[in-house]
Specification:
- The structure is a single chain.
- This protein is of the alpha+beta class.
- The chain has 2 domains: 208 residues, Roll (Pnp Oxidase, Chain A); 132 residues, UbiD C-terminal domain-like, CATH 3.40.1670.10.
- The protein is built from 12 helices and 25 strands.
- Helix 4 crosses helix 8 and helix 6 runs antiparallel to helix 7.
- It is globular.
């Protein structure tokens, strides 16, 4: 099985296997589209062929199961993290092309995105309609290095978006451009394939280009073209390209917005994107990510898991697997599986996990017999192998997520829980119950006999 190379190719695969629902009934962009998407997530992707907005179909729920990401990558589900980890070490520069379908419709005057794009309003207290799946392509003003990331976009006017830009790479590039007296030029792509979306969420060092990483994930160069207004390289197979500038000193009120922790991120005076060009395929499909839904959470969790697994194995080689459960918003809870060889390894792994990514708030270490993706097994390990007086680590005043409502300006307490059995005891006093032959028993055949 080969990786999918465009959103359309992935849609064909979903449709051919009965995992794509086409809705012909007109759906409301205010809340109704979000409600239907939520009802179907984890089961089927959904293509809304008609809305009460502009005549462009809306697609949602394209990757709401882990095994779908594995399929899009062309690997078995159990190989998803190891293969993602391996392919992150491969860099394949993009391949420049001269044409792209979205270049057939380019508007640079009298732009009003609300007349072209069907922009949903998702939650009852959201500040207005949003683009939730806009992938930003930018160049560092000093080095020219590319950067790719996703940022929520609040439509304030027909050619103006409010943005949430957290203190990461894009924030620094806006500052650098401002120091030169310039606005930062950006190109925003909507409607990319699952591998490009995963690449946009990889945790990379400054100067590393996610487009090259996406080539590594695909096993071949990503086809790119120059965006018509900025000249920034963007994927040729994108459905829609929005271009414009982020002025360093300009702020407008953005939000509130229902974010991944399943609470509202409050409104604030934030950066804006002024739109100078809008391009779209003649038969464009608008991709919508349901905020705090499975599509949203998995897109962030899977690449973070791969990065954490790499970092933890460097620190503690006995680490064998990592999970960021969706119950922790795919960010805040981390479960670490170890094949423990020395006492103390679990605590070292816990401290490494809490330091590796600011989002990780609670980490749990479990033995090799516990599936870190099985919440019931993890709870059982906590219930029977953890003692708070000796197995608990608390780190006060640590850097955490600014979107965690229980943190104060991003400062949080972190906690590690060692739920591993004493070394050598899994075959002794901590030997789990086992019924010989149960795992091989074919119940249907047995009942028929």
């Amino acid at each position: 099985m080969k990786p999918t190379r465009s959103l359309r190719e992935w849609l064909e695969r979903l449709g051919g296997s009965g995992r794509l629902l086409r809705v012909r009934k007109r759906v409301g962009l205010r809340y109704e589209l979000a409600a239907v998407s939520q009802k179907l997530e984890g089961d089927r992707a959904v293509l809304f062929e008609a809305t009460d907005g502009p005549p462009m179909p809306v697609l949602a729920n394209i990757c709401t199961r882990r095994e779908w990401y594995a399929e899009a990558m062309g690997v078995p589900p159990e190989r998803l993290l190891p293969e993602l980890q391996r392919r992150q070490e491969v860099r394949i520069p993009p391949r420049k092309s001269g044409d792209a379908p979205f270049l057939k419709n380019v508007q640079t005057r009298d732009i009003d995105v609300r007349k072209v794009l069907p922009l949903p309003t998702y939650h009852e207290r959201d500040g207005g309609p949003y683009i939730s799946a806009g992938v930003f392509f930018v160049r560092d003003p000093d080095t020219g290095a590319g950067n790719v990331s996703i940022h929520r976009m609040h439509c304030l006017e027909g050619d103006l978006f409010g943005l949430l830009v957290l203190p990461r790479h894009l924030k620094g590039m806006i500052r650098k451009a401002g120091e030169r007296g310039e606005a930062l030029k950006v190109a925003v792509a909507i409607g990319l394939d699952p591998m490009l979306l995963l690449a946009s969420q990889l945790v990379l060092a400054p100067g590393q280009d996610e487009l090259e990483m996406a080539g590594g994930l695909l096993g071949e160069a990503v086809e790119v073209v120059c965006a018509p207004w900025t000249g920034i390289l963007v994927p040729a197979q994108a459905e829609i390209i929005i271009e414009g500038e982020i002025p360093a000193g300009e702020r407008r009120r953005e939000g509130p917005f229902g974010e991944f922790p399943r609470y509202y991120s409050p409104a604030g005076e934030r950066e804006v994107l002024r739109v100078w060009s809008l391009a779209w395929r003649p038969d464009a499909v608008f991709y919508s990510i349901l905020p705090a839904g499975r599509d949203h959470l998995l897109m962030g969790a899977v690449p973070r898991e791969a990065g954490l697994l790499r970092d933890l194995q460097r620190a503690v080689p006995s680490v064998t697997d990592v999970a960021l459960p969706l119950s922790g918003s795919g960010r805040y809870h981390c479960v670490i599986q170890l094949d423990k060889r020395n006492e103390g390894e679990p605590k070292s792994a816990l401290l490494a996990a809490l330091a590796a990514h600011y989002d990780v708030k609670h980490a749990i270490a479990v033995d090799r017999d516990i599936d870190p993706h099985d919440a019931a097994m993890v709870d059982w390990a906590l219930a029977t192998r953890f003692q708070a007086d000796k197995d608990l680590i608390v780190v006060p005043g640590a850097w955490g997520s600014r979107l965690d409502p229980s943190a104060r300006e991003g400062v949080t307490a972190k906690m590690g829980l060692d739920a591993t059995a004493p070394l050598g005891s899994l075959e002794g006093s901590f030997c789990p119950l086992r019924i010989p032959g149960a795992e091989r028993l074919d119940l249907d055949a047995w009942l028929k006999g």
